[in-house]
Specification:
The protein contains 13 helices and 2 strands. By secondary structure, it is an all-alpha fold. α5 crosses α6.
Length: 295
C-alpha cells in the first residue's frame, strides 16, 4: 500500500530550500494539523492594516495561482502528480499541480521557517504532556482551552465530515487528537458539558443589555445567534443585535483615533457599528443613573 503521508513529506522536502520542513514530525496527525495552519489565518484578517494578519491572503494567493511561484524539482512535480491522481480528483492534473506545488512551497517558507528553537517535532507536536502540565501564572494559553474542554466544546475535526464531502482539514484530526490538551493540561477525560452554556437559550439567548454583535464572515458565526440556522431578530437599544457586513472576527474591537481616519478607514460597516455601540452604552448608563436617582 502506498504511504501517502510519506509522499507528502517527500514532496515538501524536494522543494529547494535551505530549511528542513516538518518531515521529522513524529505523529501523522501532527503533520496533517500543521498543514491546516493556513486556513486558521482567516480569523486573523482585519480591516486595519496595522492589525491585519496576512497569513490567509498569502496562503490563498499560493493555492489559487495558475502557475508555480517557486522553482521546483522534477521529482517534486512527479510526486505531486501522483498524489493528485491517487486522490481521484476529476479535474485534469495540470489544473491542480501548480496550486499543490505552491502550497508545499508556502508551507516550507512560511511555517517551517518559524521553527527555530527546537526540533521539528517539538515545534509542531500536540502530543506534549510536559508542556501542557505547565500551570504557573505566566501560562496564559490555559484559559481558553479550559473553557472549551469543560463547557464550550468547539473541537474542530476533519473526521466528522461526511464521507461524501471533502473536508477542509485532514480526517486524521479527530476527537481523540483534539482532546489531548483537555486530558494532558486539565486531566479532563469526559466530554464538555455544553448544557451549562446552552441552558441560557443557545441560539435564542437574550437578555436586557446583552449585545450580540458578530462579523458576517466570522468563522465562529455558526456558533452564535447570528448563525444562518438561528431566527432573525430586530436590534433594539435594550437588546442590540448587529451583524457587521463583510467583517471577520471581533472587527469592532479595534479602532482609530480621529487624526488617523481616512476616507476608507475604518470601513463604513465598522464605523456605523462602533457608533451604535457608543449610543446604546450611553443609553444604558443614562438608564442606570436615572434608576439610581429614584433610589
Amino acid at each position: 500500500m502506498v504511504n501517502i503521508l510519506f509522499l507528502l513529506v517527500m514532496l515538501y522536502t524536494e522543494l529547494p530550500c535551505t530549511l528542513e520542513l516538518i518531515n521529522n514530525a513524529r505523529y501523522n496527525n501532527d503533520f496533517m494539523n500543521t498543514l491546516s495552519f493556513g486556513l486558521g489565518g482567516w480569523q486573523g484578517r482585519n480591516w486595519d492594516p496595522a492589525v491585519n494578519d496576512p497569513t490567509f491572503s498569502e496562503y490563498c494567493g499560493n493555492i489559487t495561482a495558475n502557475s508555480t511561484l517557486r522553482v521546483t524539482s522534477g521529482n517534486a512535480t512527479s510526486i505531486a502528480e501522483y498524489l493528485i491522481a491517487f486522490g481521484g480528483y476529476g479535474a485534469p492534473i495540470s489544473t491542480i499541480l501548480s496550486p499543490m506545488l505552491n502550497f508545499a512551497g508556502w508551507v516550507n517558507q512560511s511555517i517551517a521557517s518559524t521553527c527555530t528553537t527546537g526540533s521539528q517535532n517539538e515545534c509542531w507536536t500536540t502530543h506534549n504532556s510536559t508542556y501542557y502540565q505547565q500551570d504557573d501564572l505566566s501560562q496564559s494559553w490555559r484559559s481558553w482551552p479550559y473553557q472549551y474542554c469543560t463547557q464550550w466544546g468547539f473541537l474542530q475535526t476533519g473526521s466528522g465530515v461526511p464521507e461524501t464531502q471533502l473536508p477542509l482539514i485532514s480526517r486524521l484530526i479527530d476527537l481523540p487528537y483534539e482532546e489531548i490538551i483537555c486530558r494532558e493540561a486539565f486531566n479532563i477525560t469526559t466530554p464538555p458539558n455544553t448544557q451549562i452554556i446552552n441552558k441560557y437559550g443557545g441560539y435564542d439567548i437574550a437578555y436586557d443589555r446583552l449585545a450580540i454583535i458578530d462579523g458576517e464572515d466570522d468563522p465562529w458565526r455558526r456558533a452564535t445567534p447570528h448563525a444562518p440556522e438561528a431566527k432573525n431578530r430586530t436590534s433594539t437599544t435594550d437588546e442590540p443585535f448587529i451583524l457587521i457586513a463583510d467583517a471577520v472576527h471581533h472587527w469592532d474591537e479595534n479602532g482609530l483615533f480621529l487624526n488617523q481616519t481616512t476616507a476608507t478607514l475604518p470601513p463604513q460597516p465598522i464605523a456605523e457599528t462602533q457608533f451604535k455601540e457608543m449610543e446604546f452604552v450611553k443609553a444604558w448608563v443614562a438608564e442606570w443613573h436615572a434608576q439610581k436617582k429614584r433610589g
